[in-house]
Amino acid sequence: MNWDALPDLARGVVQQAVAAGATDAECTISEGDEFSANVRMGELETLKEAGSRGAGLRVLIGKRMGASYTSDLTPDGIRRMVQSAIDLAALTTEDPHAGLPDPAELGSLKTDLQLFSNDTAELPTEDRIAIAKRAEAAALAVDPRITNSEGASFDLSVGGRVFANSRGFLGHYRSSYCSVSAVPVATLDGSMERDYWFTIARNYKGLEDAESVGRKAAERALRRLGATKVETQRVPVIFEPRTARTLLGNIFEAVDGRSIYRNASFLAGKLGEKIADERVNLIDDGTIPGLFGSSPFDDEGVPTRRTPVIERGVLKNYLLNSYTARKLNMKTTGNASRGITGNAGIGHGNFFLEGGTRTPGEIIRGVKNGFYVTELIGSGVNIVTGDYSRGAVGIWIRDGELAFPVSEVTIAGTLQEMLNGIGEIGSDLEFLSSTSAPTIMIGEMTVAGR
Amino acid sequence: MNFSESFFAAKFGITRRDLESYLSEALARGGDYADLYFEYLATSSIAIDESIVKSATQGVSLGVGVRVIAGERTGYAYSDDLSPEKIRHAAQVAALIASGPAKVEQTPLGEGRKRNLYPVLTAPSETAFKERVALAQRADVAARAWDPRIFQVQATYADNLREVLVATSDGVLNFDRQPLARMGVFALARDGKGVPQQGHSGGGGRYELDFFQKERTPEYFAAEAARQAIVALDAVEAPAGEQVVVLGPGWPGVLLHEAVGHGLEADFNRKGVSAFSGRIGQQVASPLCTVIDDGTIGGRRGSLNVDDEGNETQRNVLIENGILRGYLQDKLSSRITKATATGNGRRESYEHIPMPRMTNTFMLAGESAPEDIIKSVPRGLYCANFGGGQVDITSGNFVFSASESYLIEDGRLTRPVRNATLIGNGPEAMKYVSMVGNDLKLDEGVGMCGKEGQSVPVGVGIPTVRIDRMTVGGTA
């Protein structure tokens, strides 16, 4: 079934559901094609190319909800999906807050968000492979200590999204991205370190040059060689953008409307209070053309928008879909997010920390003894209490200089202290994903090592 | 069961001849090996929150993946449409990895396996939805009744039934019916106006619904989640720095999964990028440690009759008395390195290329009584439960996050401590294991393992163990 037929299909699914007894219904269809080429040590390793599609349906019968999905878009498959959702709604319990957004809240941005480009799709397979090979070759050429590689890849994805509901909304958009990444391995005295770098863009022309990706990945792996553990101590911790954005991910979970109404977030009940250093401006904006968190409407058919989450350190807004908004007696912020299965959850648009004025170099120079974190591993963040403890890799700062590599340590504190302890925000904000942060420095955290 | 009675033959009319012709299409351009993976997946899930059934979802997905191997290269394509034209097209796309005339003589397809590790007559997904809703409701009620300080409960129940068919150009024809069910309970507790604390619990496996009515009831999981949340109300700051760590039995086996399991997957070792590469026969753990990966344990979450490449799963010794014995293989790595298959080729779905993956990974029991292990520690940390973990297989550094742990003072468990991450280095950390308990326990059946964007269900297990040195990432 081609893309042009999907909006009618979605509208038809909603009509069938209503005819079968649903008081309200919404249908999501997503389709996508993927391509990936991986090379390793100069040779093509895997080529993958395929596409798939699926439809999801959510129905309400009064205040009871049922949901179903299928990858079978034939009339028979659709009929079974509709029946399944209707049957389930009969078995669930009434939820006084269940429902669709108000018709007045529905809509789609009219501006061109520049989410889709066809130029990459036209690039021949041989060229895609060649780009990955160039990235890897550049990494291997940087230094003789780059002895091995986990490979380099060229990835391409083109997808479409259609959404229709029984309150008259019908919207659709397509998006694309391509990316190049490299994962070289550096060796010193029998011990190995790997790191990666990547570039990603909506179209091929927006990509950073492949050689530069390879070189950056290699330099990152090299600077980890000879890493040691440090003594346990409390010091300033600087997060480079790649690790700073993971902190934003933690804060996003804590402002997710579902965690708020359940009182399962350390930020529940804190609206209007100062929760962070006054330099902190944290924004969610799904309307910025070309960026990876942009879309014309959310997954309930509500237009996306710009929502200040933290403004000058004060918690201004939670991120809500229509359900959590009704629970909290607020308005949806256009942050409904779902796949084809289940209920709408909460997602973000471009969730970012506004940049400051000092360069990362200036921030590092201001630290006498501290830890510059370049990678975090593990999942030791408790959103309910704010307790934070993760494995970290990075470089020790001595007298304002990056001095020696560190690994096998943890950094710990609480998200509350960390937000209030943000002492510096860098000027290096870049939008490489839907969550973006510049370099940030936190005044003091516990680094646990020896 | 014969092939003709199998799911894809019966429901979609797929014949041996069809499979053989798709395979020859896949090998038409000179590939060395090809396989087909048909998958039908029916899922259902229920979520209760605030004692309301807020979500009830059912659905199906279906597709076939075609893989062609040419030397060390892999071509892969898939289709969510089982019409012959679409499958042929996928085979043609995957075939492009090779260039040249067909060269492989296809082996006629044999007949599938005979054993069944999960002889489920009625998979949960085939029973009434109502009974499954009732399970989640019971968990909600029980968690709330556990203690008046429990103020928020979420209970989930999810199951799926996967029908798979694997056909390969070297003559393997296998099919399997794989049920999987899991319950989960999340509870929040609060003392007056104090800070809320959470507790998690859950479990399941490849079982019938019966399992949740008789063996592990909703009340069992509810009590466990509520208990953890209540314990956490009194938690103090975790210590920071190197400590003696005692791991309790069961789910703390996630240590093995992260510290050694991933590092022993054959793809990383073939490429020489694992901290364990080239270390077969070397001492990588204390002589007290014997670590097994076993995909054949009846009903377990990580068990499979056949892996996703059609090979029977088996019991593989990874570490024997501290000596590294073997890697976990998939088809590609075992072809390249001429190693014997171990039945560890797994994939998330028909859209994914198989990789070497763990099944159920655990350490054999030792001789110490668990209470003696705790008594032996003057000062340290006892970890009863964990969240997830992660490993950097190249450096060998791994972490796992304790969700329920206690201070050990003068050989006794004293205060509960707050969440802390433990960090170590794979080939080093297990050399510090100084006592192994006689109480091997497998986890309750909740594990999900992620690798290169693919998630598969796994199991872990461990007896109580004492580790003399490990860095604990607390703040105190």
Q: Would you write up a description of this structure?
A:
The complex is a heterodimer of chains A (450) and B (476). Chain A has 450 residues and is of the alpha+beta class. Among the domains of chain A are: 3-33 and 49-105, PmbA/TldD superfamily (PmbA/TldD fold, 2-Layer Sandwich), CATH 3.30.2290.10; 227-450, no CATH class. Chain A contains nine helices and 20 strands. In chain A, strands 1, 2, 3, 4, 5, 6 and 7 form a seven-stranded antiparallel beta sheet that branches. In chain A, strands 8-15-16-17-20 form a five-stranded mixed beta barrel. In chain A, strands 11-10-9-14-19 form a five-stranded mixed beta sheet, covered by helices on one side. In chain A, helix 3 (125-141) packs parallel to helix 4 (210-222). The longest helix of chain A has 17 residues, at 75-91. The N and C termini of chain A lie far apart (60 Å). With 476 residues, chain B is an alpha+beta fold. Chain B folds into two domains: 3-232, PmbA/TldD fold (2-Layer Sandwich), CATH 3.30.2290.10; 240-473, no CATH class. In chain B, 20% of the residues lie in helices and 38% in strands. In chain B, the strands form five sheets. Chain B has a six-stranded antiparallel beta sheet with strand order 3-2-1-4-5-6. In chain B, a hairpin with a 7-residue loop joins strand 5 and strand 6 (197-205). In chain B, helix 4 packs parallel to helix 6 (218-232). Chain B is globular, with a radius of gyration of 24 Å. The interface between A and B is large, with 78 and 76 residues.
- Tell me the structural class of chain A: alpha+beta
Strand content of chain A: 35-45%
Oligomer: heterodimer
**For the residues shown, what is the average pLDDT of chain B?**
95
Net shape of chain B: globular
Pair of chains with the largest interface and how many residues each contributes? A-B, 78 and 76 residues
Radius of gyration of chain B: 24 Å
Tell me how many strands of chain B there are.
23
The percent of residues in helical segments of chain A reads 10-25%
